[in-house]
Design goal:
This protein has 309 residues and is mainly alpha-helical. It has four domains: 88 residues, no CATH class; 38 residues, no CATH class; 91 residues, no CATH class; 75 residues, Serine Threonine Protein Phosphatase 5, Tetratricopeptide repeat (Alpha Horseshoe). The chain is built from 14 helices and three strands. Helix 2 packs antiparallel against helix 3 and helix 4 runs antiparallel to helix 5. The radius of gyration is 27 Å and the shape is globular.
């Protein structure tokens, strides 16, 4: 009798073990559910809570929890600004006040601080257990960029730390969907954030743009992406044409086909009404631009300048 009871207990334990949902099964159910209802749709939180109870240290669960709470932390509202661009965006509409002064209205994401903080806690747990997952590192930066908007102090600090980590630790980065992460992929990822800050165009964002470019150049001193960035900082924000031109010529010395540097030199020449300088760079644009219309326009401009006495 005792042997029979023991056998039944063991069988029951085996059935329970077989019936327990694995972490991969939770991940698969989550992926299917999100595909149908979104990252914060009906039923997602219930599934995530069960997943967390069963596998509290699972990387994908913590990442999914971040996505859920990050989405829940956001709402939108229409804000009023005195300027005609905000975070690089055109206004939804514009009106004039009683004095006839234009007032502009923009749609903006706003965040619940407590829920946003909870989202980052889950993401930090995931990063702690998978420190070489570059996608999660970049998600953290993107979340901070969205949260801080025109004053990206935390995002800038995060990116500077990530750059240090990349070049000093030389991690074997992982990114879902890629067999390997190249140095170029990392550089372009950082450049995307630089571009975002440049487009946001606030004083703090311009300084973040310059700070990150200089940080990259401290490890890759001749990287044309970031030398061009420093030039654009001086051209657009600091209004120092001499320093801007120096940066662009530094790029062209090693990369004579760099269209960013060529185009910016032409802009510089036109802004300063320097015909001689423009005539220097237009042939370079004609030689290296792959766009037929751009080449034709440059030829016409060069002919017009050459015809002038």
């Amino acid at each position: 009798m005792k042997k029979r009871i023991l056998t039944l207990v063991l069988l029951a334990a085996g059935v329970c073990a077989a019936a327990q949902t694995t972490a991969d099964q939770f991940a698969s159910r989550y992926a299917t559910l999100v595909k149908n209802v979104g990252v914060a749709g009906v039923g997602v939180e219930t599934l995530l809570d069960k997943w967390e109870a069963a596998y509290p240290q699972d990387v994908e669960m913590n990442f999914a929890k971040f996505l859920f709470h990050f989405s829940k932390s956001q709402s939108t509202e229409v804000v009023q600004k005195s300027k005609n661009r905000y975070l690089g965006q055109e206004p939804l509409m514009s009106l004039k006040d009683s004095l006839g002064i234009p007032v502009y209205f923009f749609q903006e994401n706003v965040y619940d601080d407590a829920v946003f903080g909870l989202a980052l806690q889950y993401l930090d747990k995931a990063i702690q257990r998978a420190p070489n997952r570059l996608d999660m590192r970049l998600y953290r930066v993107s979340a901070l960029v969205g949260y801080e908007k025109e004053s990206p102090d935390m995002a800038t600090s995060e990116l500077r730390g990530l750059i240090d980590y990349n070049f000093t630790r030389k991690p074997a980065w992982e990114y879902p969907g890629l067999e390997s992460v190249s140095a170029d992929f990392f550089d372009v990822s950082i450049q995307e954030y630089c571009f975002t800050f440049f487009r946001y165009a606030s004083p703090s964002c311009y300084e973040a743009f310059k700070s990150l470019s200089e940080k990259m150049l401290s490890f890759e001193k001749d990287n044309p992406l970031f030398v061009n960035n420093i030039g654009s900082y001086y051209l657009v924000y600091a209004h120092d044409n001499r320093k801007a031109l120096k940066c662009y010529n530094q790029v062209l010395k090693k990369h004579p086909d760099d269209l960013t540097a060529i185009n910016n030199c032409i802009i510089l020449a036109r802004n300063s009404k320097d015909v001689k300088m423009e005539k220097k760079y237009l042939p370079m644009l004609i030689k290296y631009s792959p766009d037929e219309k751009t080449v034709e326009s440059a030829k016409i401009r060069l002919e017009a300048l050459s015809a002038k006495k």
